[in-house]
Specification:
By secondary structure, this protein is mainly α. The protein has 22 helices and 5 strands. It binds zinc ion.
């Protein structure tokens, strides 16, 4: 299909139009006299959702790329308002699909996994919690606005939290110390508000769960996240393995880094720094990064070459840092234009820019190779699978890092694997914390901080804080997932464990590891996570013994 992103025309889809078209299809579905006829209606429903998603995605990318453009800001506001209504219609349609008299036939076409997903999503939603959900969204927005409001004076500049970020990992310890003091000052100034917002969020989510008949929000969240492949007990086994086998290796790793940095003790302000000079950064301009990306993917495989050329040809990157752009980075899909993957980011001269070429392109590559699948359900992947695609691509592209980092490529690889490995205990901590919080919705802010502090002692025992804010067990307040995407975090830990397995496989036989990875990408969301891993020759991180094995292998390699 011929198109360029900048030339795609935009037209709003109103809620009236959506509802009208959906109603016609819902009636048609009810009256369909066979499974085959229902599948035909299902295709039309997917097309309608595609039309809506295309309009919504275009508006939201263009708004993110220029927040002062009044036209797209109004469009974004419009969709934010109508989205719950669109979801309610979707829910109504899903119920019909799920209760269809031709269910067995439908299952044979769009897959058993799709039906399991629908079952889970129906359990986690009901019209009666819509007003609570709206209140929840408002609280999340309030949290984001509060953090975005930070105006920190530093080095003669006024910075927000993300711009301050680069000083927090400065090679000069005095600079990062001063930057952290400023950050602490800001968090102390909004501490009570942060506690209040979280308290309301926890109580709101607890109420939603109870309205739906769940004992706790934890239970509801597993349905909401579509965790069809594992439950709370399995996650607990994983976290315990991490505590027993992975944390000791990670601690040795931190100590090795401490020596490299020439420090007597590793303080919290040294956590994100890997070398005495600071962290390796890409050399050259944004154009150089793209040129390197092109060279890398051309060499890696025929599929990645085709992918990257396609991305460039259709202008599917919006990644340069600019004033008036929203923070953050993501990959999304433009449904009506070939299901084209699209990458949004903000280049800032750090190694994070290369992550766009490796991590975000990992997501986009998987979207690209599966873009022509007949049913959207085949690509309805859960987060641990999606992050396995992207985090593994970070390792498959490691051998090309000279293209980006020149003489610092080895340093980058050292930083990358240490960072990847040491992330897992932190991620588990975020997950366990949320289990504790939602199991105990009556907790006071002080009790929550005490719980966090206790987890820090288990997962990151080396950690020393000098300041009165982060040192008091309040570090979790800067982790936006805890406020905005509850229970979304263990996914990264599971995915990282799989990516590290791919890493050890590619050390043994790169070509074979790549073939398995490609096959795993192509399976998309067609099977259960554990089965797809098995097909790729990997162990499931939720199986006993997997974390122990990978900890040993990676430990042997990097210690
Ligand atoms: Zn990702």
């Amino acid at each position: 299909m011929e198109f360029r992103f900048s030339e795609i025309p935009y037209k709003r889809m109103t809620i009236e139009e959506y509802k009208e078209r959906a109603q016609v299809l819902i009636d048609e579905f009810k009256n369909a006299a066979s499974g085959e006829a229902q599948i035909e209606v299902h295709k039309k429903m997917t097309a309608l959702d595609g039309d809506f998603s295309t309009a919504y995605t275009l508006a939201s990318i263009r708004h993110d790329a220029n927040t002062v453009d009044e036209f797209y800001k109004a469009e974004q506001d419009y969709y934010d308002e109508i989205l719950p209504q669109v979801q309610a219609v979707g829910n109504e349609y899903q119920k019909l699909l799920y209760d269809s008299p031709y269910k067995e036939y439908l299952k044979s076409v769009i897959g058993e996994i799709a039906f399991k997903q629908i079952e889970y999503s129906l359990k986690a939603f009901d019209e009666k919690i819509v007003s609570l959900m709206q209140e929840e969204n408002a609280l999340v927005t309030k949290y984001q606005a509060l953090l975005a409001s930070a105006k920190i004076e530093f080095n003669g500049e006024v910075l927000n939290l993300s711009l301050l970020g680069k000083y927090l990992v400065d090679g000069d310890r005095e600079v990062r110390k001063a930057a952290n003091e400023k950050r602490v000052e800001f968090f102390l100034s909004v501490k009570d508000e942060l506690d209040e917002i979280y308290d309301q969020l926890v109580k709101n989510r607890d109420k939603q769960a109870k309205e739906l008949g769940f004992k706790t929000y934890t239970e509801m969240a597993y349905y909401k996240m579509g965790r069809i492949a594992y439950d709370r007990e399995a996650v607990e086994v994983f976290r315990n393995e991490v505590k027993t086998y992975l944390v000791p290796v990670a601690e040795k790793l931190h100590d090795k880094r401490r020596v490299r940095l020439g420090l007597d003790k590793l303080n919290a302000i040294d956590e994100g720094v890997y070398f005495a000079y600071g962290n390796p950064a890409p050399q050259g301009t944004a154009d150089d990064i793209f040129a390197a990306g092109k060279e890398m993917y051309s060499d890696l495989s025929a599929e990645t070459k085709e992918f990257f050329d396609y991305m460039l040809e259709h202008e599917l990157f919006e990644v340069l840092g600019r004033k008036n752009k929203n923070a953050g980075g993501y990959m999304t899909t433009i449904h009506n234009y070939d299901h084209a993957p699209f990458i949004y980011a903000n280049f800032n001269g750090t190694s994070g820019d290369v992550d766009v070429m490796t991590h975000e392109c990992g997501h986009a590559f998987q979207g690209f190779v599966t873009r022509n699948y007949e049913f959207a359900e085949f690509n309805n992947i859960t987060m641990e699978t999606a992050e396995t695609h992207s985090m593994s691509m970070e390792f498959f592209t490691e051998k090309y890092m000279e293209l980006f980092f020149k003489d610092k490529a080895d340093d980058y690889r050292t930083m990358h694997i240490e960072d990847a490995f040491a992330f897992i205990p932190y991620g588990c901590m975020v997950d366990e914390f949320q289990h504790i919080v939602y199991d105990n919705p009556q907790f006071t802010p002080a009790e929550r901080n005490a719980a966090w502090k206790k987890l820090e002692e288990q997962y990151k025992p080396h950690l020393v804080f000098d300041d009165e804010y982060f040192g008091s067990g309040a570090f979790w307040q800067k982790q936006k997932h805890i406020y905005c995407y509850p229970f979304y975090y263990i996914d990264y830990c599971l995915a990282q464990t799989c990516a590290l397995q791919f890493k050890t496989k590619m050390d043994e036989n790169y070509a074979d590891a790549w073939d398995k990875y490609l096959a795993f990408c192509l399976e998309s969301g067609k099977d259960y996570f554990g089965s797809m891993l098995k097909n790729a020759g990997l162990k499931s991180p939720l199986e006993k013994g997997c974390v122990e094995e990978i900890s040993k292998k990676i430990g042997d390699r990097i210690l």
